[in-house]
Amino acid sequence: MSSETRNDAAVQIDGVSKSFSGTVALEPIWLKIRRGEFLTLLGPSGCGKTTLLNLIAGFLEADEGELFIDRELVTQVPPHQREIGIVFQNYALFPHMTVAQNVAYGLRTRRVSKAETAERVAEALALVKLQDFADRRPRQLSGGQQQRVALARALVIRPRVLLLDEPFSALDRNLRTAMQVELREIQTRLGLTTVFVTHDQNEALSMSDRIAVMSQGRVRQIGAPDDIYDRPANLFVSTFVGDANLFDATLQGVQGGAAELIVGGAPLPVETYQEDLPEPGPVTLFVRPEQCRLTGAEEQGAVPAIVALSVYQGSYAELHLDCAAARGGRIMLRVPAAKALPAGIPVGIALPRTGPAIYAVEDADKEVA
Amino acid sequence: MRKSLLDHLLDWAGRIVLIAILAFVLLPFVVVAIASFNDGAILSFPPREWSWRWYANAFQYRDFGAGLTNSLKIAVFGATIALIAGAGFAYVLDRYEFRFKNTLNGILMSPLIIPNFTIGLGLLILSAAASLPRNLWLVVATHVVIVMPFVVRSVYVSLQNFERRFEQAAESLGGSPWHVLRTITLPLLAPGLASGGLFAAILSFNEFTASLFVVNQSTQTLPVAMYNYVREYADPTLAAVSVIYVLAVAVILLIVHKFFRLEKVLNVE
């Protein structure tokens, strides 16, 4: 590993793993978080994302491997010497202190002078637009305001890394979106390296520079949001991030860069982004709902299906279709609300020639999220 | 929604049961309180004539004054020592894993199952064997043994309910373990600690059985003084002392309530 690449990493995780009384929470993991990057650890509960966050924070000690922050080896360094900021899900504001005292806490531990503390606290509260709330107690604030205090408290110490542990999950939907935008703006402005833990794929897609999708203690794919969404590396990622329609198909071979598939009895040549394709034979074809096109039942090459349920969603409608060729017999399409169809209508589904992915069937059995 | 007849009956039955329980709990005190105003020299119920004279007698009787002073001293010292030692132990129990943890816990909780008179007798024999003076500290030591399990339990429960995220947040902000303990953990545990200390003090103040073994004439506690009194006299002075006793504890609880909010201290919130 050259020193140049290490220079670039604000956080470097080298083969760090963790077990709890024999149960593996985190397999050995290698990860570099770039300076100023907003990296999201995305996965279902129990996937190891919070364990990884606690390891970076120093609340847990790694079983093996090394951890670097700003090129400094911190594997054995206790949390209070790591200079990282954390915002927890429930914010963990100190209830016996005012907002200003909460924000000043990290400056007092650093023995910053009174004048400078006052100045930096005011600055941090201004950053989160809470100048007028300095003397309130945490319980007198709304959830959104509490979160801003928690953010100001973490930012005021000018941390080397900001860790966010599901900070939005306690907020209602409108506030959540507003806070996400605000947080991302502040983070970009300060150029702050940020590790964000969430199980919410929408949050991950909308906020991140890169996403590390995790399951069962492993990183299953790491990449930009559009990589993850458009080019999932495996069936777990494809089904955990975004909606997926899965079809039972037969791979006959690869000809001229296109995979020859049989889906629902009809041949389908598919150009895929994948470098490795499974062996010819039964496979699982993965297609996003927006890649499927609704056609007439009689259309040549279309996969036959029957409308089972139409769910009105305002600007669009979700059509749930019974489809013999689909895994689990069900697929979903989104159509303009005006074009929703009643249950029982036979339709056809035209599958795309480019874009979908082909996974081995064994994968499907063990990995669907 | 209209209630059925059965609901109404259950409603009334519930109220009656509640009143019965309250009455059952309060009745002994009510009887004693009424008897304390009996003018006659023999403890009888109900009184025929009313008088304050047993209250005057209670205040004049020397042993009660001395006993009260002893009891207060013992309660304050005993509860403080039990609180510090018990809270420390509860902290270790909550935060650390070590060998013989369960054994140690069992030993510390054992005064809950060993009768108080055994503890008193044991300490009496021990102090005699070690030729320790039978002074106030022996009584304090006895009370510490008896009340400590309650303190440990009370603080342990507070620690179990304690949100560790507060400490983690403080640590991430640069607080060393000692600084976090002082600025975050202890202030937030204050109600739990006050609760433990308060229980310890009240238990110590009320303790009689073990004290009987380890006190002498100069160190006797108020309950022991009362017991000695009733062996000699059968007048309502003791009833008057009981009323004063209850009022004193009530006043202490009111003061605690004013500073800490009792619901929080008693963990009933």
UniProtKB/TrEMBL annotation, chain A:
It comes from the Bacteria. It catalyses: ATP + H2O + polyamine-[polyamine-binding protein]Side 1 = ADP + phosphate + polyamineSide 2 + [polyamine-binding protein]Side 1. Its EC number is 7.6.2.11. It is an enzyme of class 7 (translocase). The complex is composed of two ATP-binding proteins (PotA), two transmembrane proteins (PotB and PotC) and a solute-binding protein (PotD). This is Spermidine/putrescine import ATP-binding protein PotA. Keywords: ATP-binding, Cell membrane, Membrane, Nucleotide-binding, Translocase, Transport. Residues 11-241 form the ABC transporter domain. SMART domains: AAA. Part of the ABC transporter complex PotABCD involved in spermidine/putrescine import. Responsible for energy coupling to the transport system. The keyword Membrane applies. Belongs to the ABC transporter superfamily. Spermidine/putrescine importer (TC 3.A.1.11.1) family. GO terms for molecular function: ATP binding.
Automatic annotation (TrEMBL), chain B:
Residues 68-256 form the ABC transmembrane type-1 domain. It is a multi-pass membrane protein. The chain crosses the membrane at residues 12-37, 74-93, 105-130, 136-159, 180-205, 237-256. Keywords: Cell inner membrane, Cell membrane, Membrane, Transmembrane, Transmembrane helix, Transport. It comes from the Bacteria. InterPro entries: MetI-like, MetI-like_sf. Coiled coil: none annotated. Pfam families: BPD_transp_1 (PF00528). It is found in: Cell inner membrane; Cell membrane. Signal peptide: none annotated. Its main location: membrane. Belongs to the binding-protein-dependent transport system permease family. PANTHER family: INNER MEMBRANE ABC TRANSPORTER PERMEASE PROTEIN YDCV. This is ABC transporter permease. It comes from Paracoccus albicereus.
